[in-house]
Amino acid sequence: LFWCAYARNKRSLGLDLEDAADRRVLLRLVSGADFLIESECPGRMAELGLGYEHLSQVQPGLVYVSITPFGQQGPKAQWAATDLTLVAAGGFAYLSGDADGPPLRVRVPQAHAQAGADAAVGALIAHAERRRSGRGQHVDVSMQESVTLATMFRILDEPVGMAPAERVAGGLQAGGVLVPLRHRVRDGWVTLGPSILPSTGHFMKRLLEWVAEEGFCDPALAQEDWGSFGLRLGARRLPEDAYEPVARSLDTFFASKSQAELMSAAV
């Protein structure tokens, strides 16, 4: 099921890269390709004559993307890894779990998904440059680095003078404040990722406008600068109870809705 979801609407062709005839088929495909994405152990594709240096001669505009546990170079480049070891090495597990318990791995694999998203962005940036210069590039993606980026740099809070990041359950820590993620609805529970950062503040504004329209909060609450709210909380530039009016309003609002009603509104 996992593979079916990720491979939906994709065409496939099975090739044995150990076989010379199949490698020739791949070379023909590469000659007209925009992108090649591989996840072999660093150096293996070059051994087969399929590394970036070789394929860029076949197709100078090729965007060649390598996704590996620890990148193409460095002391761990040849190390094998699983999702568990990568979320630990990237710091993600440190932030997952209860405050009084050990670090935990998120149930759905994260490292490959995060690296895949970063690889897609890197590939598109390289493609934009190719449109300008006609030249392809080798995009090197380290899953460990992708996992670290996915922590939203929380593991760096303390070194830059913010409150140390801690594991919390059912919420998000911002400074000394626990921002709830779970809310009870009429027929169960829902999870809401609070949109209190620069790229997502407009979502919180729209949500609170809806909450205010239904009489569950003061309309002025929606006019808060939600794009900077999380940063100000984390830097302790807001009182620790600053989010409490929002949490109370959301609790009462969600309690009046069913999961289906909220899903319908969300999509």
From TrEMBL:
<dbReference type="Pfam" id="PF02515">
    <property type="entry name" value="CoA_transf_3"/>
</dbReference>
<dbReference type="GO" id="GO:0008410">
    <property type="term" value="F:CoA-transferase activity"/>
</dbReference>
<protein>
    <recommendedName>
        <fullName>CoA transferase</fullName>
    </recommendedName>
</protein>
<dbReference type="InterPro" id="IPR044855">
    <property type="entry name" value="CoA-Trfase_III_dom3_sf"/>
</dbReference>
<dbReference type="InterPro" id="IPR003673">
    <property type="entry name" value="CoA-Trfase_fam_III"/>
</dbReference>
<dbReference type="InterPro" id="IPR023606">
    <property type="entry name" value="CoA-Trfase_III_dom_1_sf"/>
</dbReference>
<keyword id="KW-0808">Transferase</keyword>
<dbReference type="InterPro" id="IPR050483">
    <property type="entry name" value="CoA-transferase_III_domain"/>
</dbReference>
